[in-house]
Specification:
Layout: E1 19-29, E2 34-39, H1 44-47, E3 53-57, E4 68-77, E5 80-85, H2 91-95, E6 101-105, H3 118-121, E7 125-128, E8 131-141, E9 146-152, E10 157-161, E11 169-171, E12 176-178
Parallel strand pairs: 7-12
Antiparallel strand pairs: 1-2, 1-6, 2-5, 3-4, 3-6, 4-5, 7-8, 8-9, 9-10, 11-12
């Protein structure tokens, strides 16, 4: 993984060890410091136990830059994951953490199902309909979702959302991942036949 960029929003904190991203704080909830979470873990109830501590990825201008964040309480409210953290006692403090990304050191995290580190994905062959069509060259961590940067056989670079609907299988032992992209994601769609000039007629509609 690379060093933090100037905004501190899309990379692990500078100088950090190999880390696993487990969540993002998306919105203050209520008046007592709670925050709604976007989860990147298959075991949120096990990961966000009271006392669990995370490395924070925030801009350098944030008062939380360089500080850890420790869980005080985790619960589900109307099917949404919500957490309270040590030192976050009111809505004002919670709003300072909105968009922060939570990371945990690889050494402190057991590998979860459907969770991979960037270095495990880069270099994998990309398979579509049984054929190798390219290689993973990069993983981009955006606030909304992760994107896989693929180098295709024709040397084009394309970005693919790293979601189960499009990347249903990752096989590290075989060195490949499978993609099932919707039409137009990896190639340009052909012109709609309705837009083509009918055979035997010119543009005015007269017989040639």
């Amino acid at each position: 993984m690379t060093d933090a960029n100037p905004t501190g929003e899309t990379r692990p904190p500078q100088g950090s060890k190999t880390q696993l991203r487990v969540g993002r704080l998306v919105k203050a909830h209520g008046l007592k410091g709670a925050l709604k979470l976007e989860l990147y873990t298959d075991d949120p109830d096990g990961r966000f136990v009271p006392g669990a501590t995370f490395t924070l990825q925030v801009p350098e201008s944030s008062p939380w830059h360089g500080k850890p964040l420790t869980v005080r309480e985790f619960k589900w409210m109307n099917s949404h994951p919500v957490a309270f953290f040590e030192g976050v006692e009111d809505r004002t403090a919670a709003e300072e953490l909105v968009r922060a990304i939570l990371w945990i050191d690889e050494s402190a995290a057991s590998q979860e199902e459907d969770a991979w580190y960037d270095h495990q994905l880069v270099g994998l062959d990309v398979v579509r309909d049984g054929d190798v069509i390219g290689t993973v060259i990069r993983v981009d961590h955006l606030p909304a979702q992760d994107l896989l940067a693929l180098r295709l056989a024709d040397d084009r670079e394309v970005l693919v959302p790293f979601v189960r609907a499009i990347v249903p299988d990752v096989d590290l032992s075989a060195g490949r991942l499978t993609v099932t992209p919707p039409a137009g994601l990896l190639e340009e769609l052909p012109a709609d036949e309705s837009d083509a000039t009918p055979s035997g007629r010119d543009a005015s509609g007269d017989e040639s």
